[in-house]
Amino acid sequence: MKSFAGIVLFLLSSLSVVHAQNETGRFFKNLENGFCMGIDEHHYIYTYHCHHERVTQFERTGNRLVAQTGDSAGMCLESEQDPGHLDSTLDEWPRFKACEAGNSAQIFEFQPDGRWTGHVGGDGYANEYCMALLNPNHIRVKLELSSNGNCVIWYDADTGTVGDPIITGLGGQQFKFDGRDDAWYANIAIQSQSNNIFDSSTSSLFQWNMKFKEFPTCPKGDDMFVSSIAYDFGNGNTVLIATTSEQVPQCENQICLGDGTLHISFDGGETFVSNPGDYNFGVGNRVVSHNTYDACSRKWFDFDISKNLNKDVSLLRGQTERTLEMESKKPALQYLTEQQRSTIRPVECEGWIQERFAKNDLFMQKGQWSTIHVESPEISFHVEYRRNNLDHDVDGQCNFQSLDAWMTRVSKVLYGEKWNGILGETRNKNGVEGRFNILRGQNDSDYEVNGPFVTEFPALHIR
Q: Cβ atoms within 10 A of the Cβ of 454, count?
């Protein structure tokens, strides 16, 4: 099961999801088994091969999912309790019925991470439920507690975007970038052009490279994830974020990021720290890292380049301007309040955040998922580390580790320079769709680099 994401200006994903729009005739495909959503003769949801006759087109109308084709056309998705059982929290089934205004059982929300979620009246709407595949056949869909981690991740199959990583460009473009196992790729390479007309040389101002890893237990085509990220801010200031498949020994009796599978280096990979904390490196650079869990993992937001020329930074839409001084001095816990509204389940997450404030123990939290904020004077990032639920063994489960990253801020000066790399080339391609219409390099290998901080790659020289 996977997830990368709303319209972010940047990223690659592994748990990446392409979002359906509010249009008619949308197909929904499942990232876990590649099957499409359909309805059987009794109006219950199943997943079928996408060419199957029972695959259905849908329309999202507000918080309702309405079938557009088949015998259920015009009906709304509803949570129906199995009459043979009394425990509605275990025996709720999604079924299409006649649409009824005010029927709370028909309220379902398509989350930015690709889940369809709702609530069950039998437990007083205290918990969030999601569509999950019924074992062992992984074909029929039922409702299950979201906290169990078995939610089906859907995307709009009409986009034709299948697999990971999925790149979401600076202009909202989305396309698949396959890559190969254990290879590094240049995602953003920002370079300064020489002012001398007789000198065509460039110097690197910032580099963001990413490493891919193949996970063989995941479906073919959906089995490549970002396993390491390297940022080079210049002047010897670097951050390398890496994952390991197993917990490192020193984390057996310590509180470590990702339960000992996520590690950060500030010296080019010579040494790593694995503990949550607030780290400063160089001048004005900072990394805040802590463990979290699915409810408090961040949703995706899109990047906004400010139209106000008096501002020297570009921010996420809907946020107020943050100065460099604020970034370097604000308490680490303030990051939690800034991201609370954009988490996967904000109501549930709010309680967890308030408890962290009360106990002042953000860096003492254990967990298999983690959040990292990377701040520098010119450019800043938010990184989410996600994994499958290792404590919930499911036959055929996709065992993955994923680093999803996106920019939260870039200076006006840096934005004005020349951008290259996979993501960098999307910057001036607003309204252009399709990987081969956006990227200069037609082959994945055109963006390969020979290491985490290498700045040279073939696409730099393609015009």
A: 15
pLDDT of residue 445: 95
Helix (H) or strand (E) segment spanning residue 350: helix 346-359
Give residues with Cβ within 8 angstroms of 35, minimum separation 6: 29, 47, 48, 49, 50, 139
Look at the alpha carbons of 342, 290, 225, 434 in this order and tell me if their dihedral is positive or negative: positive
28-158: what fold? Trefoil (Acidic Fibroblast Growth Factor, subunit A) (2.80.10)
Average pLDDT of the chain to the nearest whole number:
75
- Kindly report the three-state secondary structure assignment for every residue of 304-346: CCCCCCCCCEEEECCCCCCCHHHHHHCCCCHHHHHHHHHECCH
Residue of 157, 219, 231 whose CA lies nearest to 188: 231
Task: Sketch the domain layout of the chain as residue ranges.
Answer: 28-158, 166-461
Look at residue 195 and give its three-state secondary structure.
coil
Nearest CA to 343 among 353, 334, 333, 331?
Answer: 353
Closest CA to 285 of 233, 243, 244: 233
Q: Rounded to two decimals, what is the model's pTM?
A: 0.62
Is the bond leading into 346 cis (omega within 30 degrees of zero)? no
Determine the average pLDDT of the residues in 157-183. Answer: 69
pLDDT interval class at 198 (50, 70, 90): very low
DSSP class per residue in 237-284: -EEEEEE-SS--GGGTTS--GGGTTEEEESSTTSS-B-S-EEEEETTT
Alpha carbon distance 342, 113 (integer Å): 11
How far, rounded to the nearest angstrom, does the alpha carbon of residue 227 sit from its chain's CA centroid? 13
Rg of the chain over CA atoms, in angstroms? 23
Range with the lowest mean pLDDT among 73-77, 164-168, 374-378? 164-168
Query: In the numeric block, which tokens belong to residue 98?
Result: 């006649």
Contact (CB, 8 A) for 157 and 50? yes
Query: Which residue type occupies 54?
Result: R
Determine contact, residues 2/103, Cβ cutoff 8 Å.
Answer: no
Res 284 pLDDT > 80: yes
C-beta separation of 15 from 386 below 8 A: yes
